[in-house]
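User: Predict the complex with magnesium ion.
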Amino acid sequence: MQKRKKAKSMTQERSIVHMDLDTFFVSCERRIDSRLNNMPVLIGGTSDRGVVASCSYEARKFGVHSAMPMRMAKQLCPEAIVLRGNSGVYTKFSKEVTDVIQETVPLYEKSSIDEFYIDLTGMDRFFGCHQLATELRTKIMKETGLPISFGLSVNKTVSKIATGEAKPNNQLKVDSGLEKGFLAPLSVRKIPMVGEKTYNALCDLGIKRIKTVQEMPVNMMERVFGKHGITLWKKANGVDNSPIVPYHERKSISTERTFDKDTIDVYKLKGIITAMTENLIYQLRRGNKLTACVTFKIRYSDFQTYTKQKMIPYSSADHIILPIVMDLYKTLYQRRLLVRLVGVRFSHLVSGGHQINMFEDDEKILNLYHAMDKMRERFGDRAVIRASGMGAKSISRWNPFTGEPPPLLANRRQ
Ligand SMILES: [Mg+2]
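Assistant: Here is the predicted structure with magnesium ion placed in the model:
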């Protein structure tokens, strides 16, 4: 009896909640200006070539959706109020929500600026997970004034899809054992890993509903999509063992440079810091990540080490992050001593770079980054660099978000 009990707890079924703020940017704007309530609102690049980053449900009725050219959205819904986004405001509200979650539950993952996974496993003994999640949702809405939806199930994939089905401003529980049936009638597009490319490939095969994937043999999916196909098949069948990654353990990315010969050459230092930072920001963008915390580190020839960090609105833009790093360097580099090492770190990373970048920058800068990143992708990360960073040697080709280890040690000599 005892043994059986133990075995059960080891394979304990999980209770995973996915919470997603409804039309987050729009809701933030409404918190600031209640006249926007019940109105069609578009947020994004406001120029002719801008793109919709977020839109209210009132605008969606007209066929508007995010990532649509702003010009087309305005044509579909001429009475819409068009706003240029403000990442500082959204970062602040995102933090408010994060704080409520943090003080309520022991284990959560912040997966993007407006999305969270919460592990309530084992907490059902006293209250029931559904009730706990419902209370948390009510608390968030009461304390932040922002509408939020959730899905509850045994894993991340099913919960995220459930949230999507619950929206707007609602909640949905998928009972254990009913995952397959819940997913079956839905479009394959609803599976989180299915982007445009995979969706089109599935459509070419005549696969529209998740049910069809469920009925296919897994090795057929593997033959067509490789490893990706196996994961896709598992998700379609409601299987997903991926864990909740605690927010504080969320990966940061960093780069350091130790000099062969300690230096006091300010031009050289600045050049290297610029190159290091640009490369690290490029890696953020490539991983579709944003950072909210920038740290700079300097070590002198006597091994005294100083670090300084700054919280910033979520960003992955050179023209925002680079000046902050240079400021940190200027405030830290006071000793006029030989420098042995410099380092840059980005932490508090979340996903969702595309969304923020849609309005953060004016179109010209955005297109410039896009073009620069494309060249780096094709010709290597040293293909495009600022002139001031030309003195520095290559930093890294490694993409920290693909899960593959770096080909070189982080601490390279120059
Ligand atoms: Mg959302």
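The radius of gyration is 24 Å.
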